[in-house]
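yo

u said u wanted the structure for the complex thing, so here. seqs first:
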Amino acid sequence: MSISGDTLRGHTDTIILTQLLRADNYGYEINKKIQQRTHGQYGLKEATLYTAFKRLEQNGLIRSYWGQDGPGARRRYYSITQEGRRRWEENTREWAATRALLDALISIEEE
Amino acid sequence: MSISGDTLRGHTDTIILTQLLRADNYGYEINKKIQQRTHGQYGLKEATLYTAFKRLEQNGLIRSYWGQDGPGARRRYYSITQEGRRRWEENTREWAATRALLDALISIEEE
DNA sequence: ATGAAATACCTTGACAGGCGAGGTATTCTA
DNA sequence: TAGAATACCTCGCCTGTCAAGGTATTTCAT
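structre next:
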């Protein structure tokens, strides 16, 4: 987890939304998947994770429900909404633009 | 300037350092170059710009001096330090890593 | 049997960077 | 001669991150 949080700031929501595109999932597991995908290079801090869930739900981009009471600790599952999918598309498009922009701005080529 | 500030947050310093790699320059002109390079898509807000200069100088990454009194408004020039160059290299390397990471995290491919 | 680790959730408060709003002074231009 | 452009700067708010702290359950090694 060597990547400083600030360079990814603002992308947390998109990262979480991406995880929910395939299927509903709960917080702890979502974060483990993120760590797996990055081979342990990155993971969300718990405080950041749950803050993001709350923000996303308040903005109508995800919905939550308690998992069936089985053995094990209770789990709160999240599902992405239609609005969430729209936002995901918007954000990924913006990311492509941002990436191109920064690439241009930190290259030492002639303008 | 449609790119939201938060997605570039934390990269402001690197963007400015990049401009100073070639030659000393003053704030207003640096920002204009940034705007030119991005074809008007992005520019730093003045408050952000001058905050960044102060931060960079306090961290020893740039140095400043007043331009020769000629006609026109006074200009404060900045030059990048050795430490600033080191940091620039570090930051651009980190950016490459961050970019790869985010690309992986927001793609809908199988993990 | 028992204590530590893992799972799983959550909140509070501090911190830092971006930026809107406001300010100053000079020079150029219509 | 008024307004736009150049050029600098500060204050205070907002927002996302995260260290630190908390709760409750289950699994596992000793």
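The mean pLDDT of chain A is 91. The first helix of chain A runs from residue 5 to 8.
cya
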